[in-house]
């Protein structure tokens, strides 16, 4: 067995172990990869005026390499895709509950979980953090406009954005998760009621 195959097997075993223990990827260090786009943009832009989010990066494309914005958002979307795939895999491996087995096919059940996770991550990891950092950096730029120290004027908005990043999961995860759970619980109830109605009609 090659070294690469050994590493692949170990990785698969670890993923299976996490899935069996129902470990949430948002409880691991991988969670912060979703914010890598913001961090990497800030660190790679150097002494030039910093493009901290994709919106800022697009606005300052003449002074910030476009590949940085593209690569950073690529990291975040790769994380999101991986997280959704892991959640779907974990759900499939765990199997359906009695209610799920009675009303949903396996593709529908796993698909619902994947869509729910994608919605959560898109809002909690991408949209709201991007808006928050974008707004914070913009407001900080205004606050640092009249600062005479050139270095502070340049880096002040960036450090303002960076200071917020560690708190993003604590700010958004719980409310977004709660809202997402309620919406999808409502959808699942409607689907179950629709299934029961069809069963009564057919009988």
TrEMBL record:
GO terms for biological process: mitochondrial fission. InterPro entries: Mitochondrial_18_kDa_protein. One of its GO terms (cellular component) is mitochondrion. Signal peptide: none annotated. Belongs to the MTFP1 family. This is Mitochondrial fission process protein 1.
